[in-house]
Amino acid sequence: MVPTHLLYLHGFRSSPRSVKAREVAAWLQAHRPDLVFSCPQLPPSPREAIDLALSLLADWPQDRTAIVGSSLGGFYATVLAERLGCPAVLFNPAVNPARDLARHIGEQTAWHHPEDRFYFREEFIGELQAMTPRRLSRPERYYPVIATGDEVLDWREMRARYQGAPWLLIEGGDHALSDFELPQAYMVRSLGLDGPVF
């Protein structure tokens, strides 16, 4: 089934104003204006971020919903896909954010607006640990885009985590997927967004 609803989840210190989020929104506006799209500003608390996403998804048709997530948002998308059974496209997804974000406890600045500050609390690590899926029930529902040149996350961990998924492996590249044309085309093709709506 072609999705009629799409939720985009941004990464750590990011926002709906990220390049990827804006390019996805622009593509949908140009090619699929009929599709319901949401890209919320996620709170620093992982538990609150998931609760916010679930509140947005509550009234959406589960069998027509897809989730897109970048970095930490890719981890959140995985958590939600395991709970709801919907497909998820993941851009350089975080695999073990409880480990990786432990060194970022304290005051942080927003990437796109450094004047915006937030505090990443120690208890957020426990929230991440509590929600981490032990295994993926259906790897084929995931469409990870993995750049081997990611300077933030280990691409080998991503590939191992999503073993069995129809991933797109980009030789080189970076964490931000600065050349976003190919990953976006993969998202469109994987979710059938360029096909007819049934």
What structural class is derived from the secondary structure elements? alpha/beta
In the sheet with the most strands, the strands line up as 2-1-3-4-7-8
CATH topology: Rossmann fold
Mean pLDDT: 92
The portion of residues assigned to helices is 25-40%
State the fourth-level CATH superfamily. Answer: Alpha/Beta hydrolase fold, catalytic domain
Helix and strand string, N-terminal first? EHEHEHEHEEHEHEH
- What's the domain count? 1
Number of strands: 8
User: How much of the sequence is in beta strands?
Assistant: 15-25%
Output the CATH class name. Alpha Beta
Rg, rounded, reads 16 Å
Calculate the terminal CA-CA distance, rounded to whole Å. 7 Å
Count of separate DSSP helical elements = 7
Spans of at least 5 consecutive residues whose pLDDT stays below 50 are none
The 3D shape can be described as globular
Jot down its keywords:
8 strands; alpha/beta; 198 residues
Question: What does this protein look like?
Answer:
The chain starts with a strand and ends in a 7-residue tail after the last helix. The mean pLDDT is 92. The protein has 198 residues and is of the alpha/beta class. It has seven helices and eight strands; from the N terminus they run βαβαβαβαββαβαβα. It has a six-stranded parallel sheet with strand order 2-1-3-4-7-8, with helices on both faces. The protein has a two-stranded antiparallel ribbon with strand order 5-6. It has a single domain, classed as Alpha/Beta hydrolase fold, catalytic domain (Rossmann fold, 3-Layer(aba) Sandwich). The chain has helices at 19-31, 46-57, 72-84, 97-100, 123-131, 155-161, 181-191; strands at 5-9, 36-38, 65-70, 88-91, 106-109, 117-120, 142-147, 168-170.
